[in-house]
Amino acid sequence: MSFDAKQFLSSVSASPGVYKMLDEQQNALYVGKAKRLKSRLASYFRGQLNAKTQAMVSRIADIQITVTRSETEALLLEQTLIKELRPPYNILLRDDKSYPFVFVTDRHPYPALEYKRARQRRGDGKYLGPYPSSGAVRESLTLMQKIFRIRNCEDSVFAHRSRPCLQYQIERCSAPCVDYISQPEYQRDVDHAVMCLEGKSEHVTQLLTEEMEAASRTLNFEEAARLRDQIQQLRQMQQRQFVDNESGDADIFALAQRPGALGISILSVRDGRLLGARHHMPKNDLDLSPEALLTEVVSQYYFGQPHSVPSEVITNLPLEDGTLIADALAQQAGKKVRVTHQVRGHRAQWQHLAMTNAEQQLASQLANTTQLTERFTSLQQALGLPSLPERLECFDISHSQGEATVASCVVFDHQGPRKSDYRHFRIEGVAAGDDYAAMQQALTRRLKRVKSGEAIAPDVLIVDGGKGQLNMARQVLTDLQVPGIVLLGVAKGTTRKAGLETLFLESSDNPLVLAPASPALHLIQHIRDESHRFAIAGHRAARDKARRTSTLQDIPGIGPKRRRELLKFFGGLQGVQKASRDELTRVPGISAALAETIYVTLNG
Question: Rounded to whole angstroms, what are the CA distances from 533 to 133, 473, 527?
């Protein structure tokens, strides 16, 4: 059954709302929101779409819409439907069942602070969290039991105690099981512990200070001393958190993306304390931009799952609907919420830490052996090779307007990047900016060692550049008569966007077309990006070294003594460069022939 988009769009409202795209079995393909439903839905059937979006649109059998009063309502409804329907083309975070909570029951006169992996009961207590990791929960519980002496035993053990346990002896419990503390006093300690876990430790400190002063006025010095000890412990906890992380109440989102993979890290900071991090590897089936992708993740994180809302949400990229999300979060939390990607000081450090985590998770994912095997297998099929390639090498050229030209050679095998085999080639004797000659020199030096048996030959040789670079590489292989190497050229697309590269197999007349989602293309993009990074690093190192080093060192016949005499005589390198041949011969130790060499070297 084909979907009549023209007829459907003729009756769609221009109001804000939510739309569900359904297939022939009435299963949800995608759920989205729109400020103007008519305009947003029309965009799916007009203009040029990427391949993934076209694939989804081709499966549409029906579209259902729900009109809302505002875009904020649409955002909240969208995330509710995504969690309920889990459409395959939406960004989906893992279910929150793995997130740990702290649970406080209201069915026991002496409740404990319990560790819970998920919301197991409803309506019979209070859940605090979710926390980013189990370690964060256990550390928090240990602190609360130490400060407020909350019991940590099971209800069955509590009901059969006839005397205090070891926890009471080490002052980690107030022994409510044997009535060493009254129920109202114990409940007050539990309430204080809950407030601290909610980030209100400063308020708890003020309450305890007031209670301590009241106990002192009534001459209840024992109680005043106990409260004093609690206040000191809270102050120590607050001071340690402030020294380590300044202050703040924020969630930090960072997205890192490479061809074929993306990683998102979420750091949680409460009351100035970093509680931990969570990492997600969502699929980007619609090839969304990084900003749009991060917007979807932030929206689903808060509106699709029960996470506490902080005072600030920090991202490493600007969100497409930042103001809308901030308004919706404020409505949900009942307080002002700031959403920003521009931060300073310790917030910038949190942002950098989140980005570091995202990059690390992404690197781990790309290094996954299973995924690498899949990519090498896909490359074998794409290139029509009889067996799985064992070694890939990629060459790239880097310079600054011809200065300090460096070629890079990076190597990949079935374990990923083989950094011990990476090489830099300092390019000399070629015209500034002549990338073809630079590539010829680097490949000749590398392949001569292969032909002589000094080095291992690559199965696939990848050249980062257009047709000219590829033709130069083919000429080097022909001149040196090195057989058995598959040659692959990678030319950047017109927009230089990943996925739009043009590939050439063996010659510039044989383009190789791979789908944007092809694992083989992702492997090629990965090694190309690594080669580019390594070339830039080598070029910068060579350029900086050259700029820090006197050019007199490179002139034959000029040693330390003569260099010192030249610099002393002319007052510096600029004076030497401006000197004539006759003026150079006036320097002690400089002959007419040497003066000619110096002049020609410095002045061309």
Answer: 34, 21, 10
235 within some domain: no
Range of the domain at 348: 250-366
pTM, full prediction: 0.50
For residue 30, what is the enclosing H or E element? strand 28-34
Helix (H) or strand (E) holding 565: helix 560-570
Evaluate the CA torsion angle 94, 95, 96, 99 in order and state its sign: negative
Q: Is the dihedral of CA 538, 543, 544, 545 positive or negative?
A: positive
Residues 131 and 276 sit within 8 Å (Cβ to Cβ): yes
The tokens for 422 are: 């990476």
Token pair, residue 433, equals 């900016």
pLDDT score at 368: 62
Q: How many residues does the chain have?
A: 604
How many structural domains is the chain composed of? 4
Whether residue 130 has a cis bond before it, omega within 30° of 0: yes
CA distance 248 to 494: 44
The count of other CB atoms within 10 Å of the CB of residue 292 is 17
Cβ–Cβ < 8 Å for 256, 280: no
331 and 379 in a common domain? no
What stretches of 334-481 show up as alpha helix (H) in DSSP?
345-366, 369-383, 435-451, 467-480
Q: How far apart are CA 227 and CA 147, in angstroms?
A: 10
Please list, in sequence order, all residues whose beta carbon lies within 8 angstroms of the beta carbon of residue 269, skipping any fewer than 6 positions away: 245, 248, 249, 250, 251, 252, 275, 310, 350
Q: Are 60 and 8 in contact (CB under 8 A)?
A: no
261: enclosing H helix or E strand: strand 261-270
Token pair, residue 520, equals 């083989």
3-state secondary structure of 570: helix
Beta bridge partners of 507: none
Q: Where are the alpha helices (DSSP H) in 304-344?
A: 322-333
For residue 480, pLDDT beyond 50: yes
523 and 590 both lie in a single domain: no
Largest CA distance in the chain: 107
Of the chain, the percentage scoring pLDDT greater than 90 comes to 15
CATH of the domain at 259: 3.30.420
User: Which helix H or strand E contains 492, and what residues bound it?
Assistant: none
Residues 378 and 360 in one domain: no
pLDDT tier at 393, thresholds 50, 70, 90? very high
Which amino acid is it at 175? A
Residue-wise pLDDT tens digits, 8-27: 887 788 888 889 999 888 88
Give 124-153 as a DSSP string. Answer: SEEEE---S-HHHHHHHHHHHHHHH----S
Contact yes or no for 472/436 (Cβ under 8 A):
yes
Q: Give me Rg for the CA atoms of the chain.
A: 34
Residue 515 and residue 583 share a domain: no
Dihedral, CA of residue 422, residue 426, residue 431 and residue 433, to nearest 10: 50
Q: What is the dihedral of CA 130, 280, 143, 190, to 10 degrees?
A: 0
Q: Taking the mean position of all CA atoms in its chain, how far away is CA 507?
A: 37
Each residue's pLDDT tens digit, 309-348: 888 999 999 998 888 999 999 888 888 999 999 988 888 8
Closest CA to 6 of 49, 50, 42, 57: 42
Q: What is the β-pairing status of strands 273-280 and 261-270?
A: antiparallel
Beta bridge partners of 539: none
Cα(488)–Cα(473) distance, rounded to whole angstroms?
A: 10
